[in-house]
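Each lists sequence, tokenised fold; shown next:
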Amino acid sequence: MRLFEWRGCLGGVWTAGLLGYLLDFDKPGLAKELKVKLDERGGKTGGGEKAFCYDPEALKLLLEDLCVEAGVQFQYHTRVAAAFKEGRRLTTIVTDSKSGREAWRAPVFIDTTGDGDLGALAGCAFELGEAKDCPCQPMSLNALLVVKDVEALREFVRFGKALLMRIPMTRRRIAFGLKSRNLVTSHPTANRPSGMCGATCFSP
């Protein structure tokens, strides 16, 4: 299996989007495996069984390791540019990357872009929003804050704990949920479906 990712890491909004927390994660399968392995690596930074915070950098490495263990070949900075069908079956995709434009044939393709990009390129029907009277969900705002004194923000902390930064040691990186207040933050991200957004996989 080969996986194409247009960013420089796996995980989509979990990692590149600096989400920093996972909700509704008290499930078996991959959800449980990620939670357990993050905890073993010290990448889980607070919360309970159902919702918890994590270090995005730790999750990047974990996802890569899981793909390597499973024999998945992943290629970064690669976008799907076109899709070709024979009848109703998708048979070939074209990608753009630093390696140039390449064509890939496979019996099965999985669209994990989060936005259904591959499906749209292949001519699949789609709707914008959930229904005629239901517009798209507005953008949300996530951030990793670097502050001198974490405890000064304690009243805003919902769950989680600060992560020690190596340089400088006097600062702390906040990787926990913040209560809704008018705080100045950065790194806006679109609230896309959780998962390996931006990726396309196929089995050759």
